[in-house]
Amino acid sequence: MTFAGVNGTPERAFATDWNNIGPRIGFAYRIPGARETVIRGGGGIFYGPTVSNTIGDVASLGFSTSAGYSAAQAETQSSLRLRDGFPVVSRQPLTPGFGAVPVGQKVNTSMAFFNPKHVAPISCQYNFGVQREVARNLLLEVGYIGNLSHHLTANDLSLNQVAP
User: Fold this and answer.
1) Which residues of 107-141 are buried (b: 16+ CB within 10 A; e: fewer)?
2) Is the dihedral of CA 115, 116, 117, 122 positive or negative?
3) How many CB atoms lie under 10 A from the CB of residue 50?
4) How far apart are CA 146 and CA 126, in angstroms?
5) What is the pTM for the complete model shown?
6) Could you give phi then psi for residue 131, rounded to 5 degrees?
7) Higher per-residue confidence, 118 vs 41
8) Are 144 and 128 in contact (CB under 8 A)?
9) How far does Cα 23 stand from its chain's mean position?
10) Could you give the CA distance from residue 119 to residue 15 in angstroms, rounded to a whole number?
């Protein structure tokens, strides 16, 4: 198990992708001689976040400052009393053995993986439309919208994924 920023591991989960340029273009053209008709269109390249929604929990593994307190018999015991202060909590050292549990003991964490070379999701979006004024204050429009995406992130990939 490795941790971001510890023992030479990079501080970020993913490398910065400097070539993600997202140009956009659009146009509107009124047809000469048919002033009631306009052709519109446009397109662009958009990039999504490299990380999925679940990476926040995974990335904080080993760095959390939270602690849980419980009492064996909640009716008669307190887990803590503020007048006594909070108990000292120590965190397990961040070594490759972090999270390892001896046989027979309860598991307290699980391994997670994200590919540090994952490229940003890309979406090519485009549209085309024709508008025609058919009567005063009445417009008819026909259009097409398209979207082509690659490298999308997924929240449900497992290290132990079974091959198709």
Assistant:
1) eeeeeeebeeebebbbbeebeeeebeeeeeeeeee
2) positive
3) 22
4) 5
5) 0.57
6) -115, 140
7) 41
8) yes
9) 23
10) 9
The rounded mean pLDDT for the chain is 78
What is the CA 120 to chain-centroid distance, rounded?
Answer: 10
CA distance 146 to 16: 28
For residue 109, give the 3-state DSSP assignment: coil
Bin 16: left if φ > 0, else alpha if -120 < ψ < 50, else beta.
beta
Could you report the per-residue pLDDT of 75-101, keeping only the tens digit for each? 777 777 888 888 777 776 767 666 666
Strands (E), 17-137: 24-30, 37-47, 122-135
- Which tokens belong to 128? 């085309």
**Any bridge partners for residue 6, and if so which?**
none
- How far apart are the C-alpha atoms of 94 and 7, rounded to whole Å? 10
User: Nearest-CA neighbor of 61 among 120, 116, 137, 112?
Assistant: 112
Amino acid at 15: A
Q: Tell me, what amino acid is at 151? A: H
The answer for residues whose C-beta is within 8 angstroms of residue 107's C-beta and 6 or more apart is 101
Residue 53 phi, psi (nearest 5): -65, -25
Paired tokens of 70? 């419980």
Q: Are 47 and 121 in contact (CB under 8 A)?
A: yes
